[in-house]
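Q: What structure does this chain adopt?
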Amino acid sequence: MKQLSRVLGLAVAATGLLMISSVSFAQGASKKPLQTAKKPAPMTHKITADAAKKIALAKFKGTVTKAPLLEKEDGKWQWEVIVVNGKTMTEVNVDADSGKITSSEKVTEKEEAKEKAKKKGKG
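A:
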């Protein structure tokens, strides 16, 4: 009889601990957002990389030697297109939504490599 009441007492204590830990787990879980393995929705812009390339080449004669890069600069998404004409490289930024050229500048390969390294360090 004594052993039975001891077993019952332990069972009640264990049940109580399980209930308390379940409640505290549930409360803690409600405070944190659930992490999901879903991929983020793809970004969609009116201007594609190919369109940005054509826009840049319409204004700056030359060739594009690498794929345009989509980047967020000054709060806006834009395509960075590098147009090469002889020894001259021109970085042309095309707004990814309007298709307007937002800026352009003559650059050297050394400057581009330095900028790329700087961006890589941030991300």
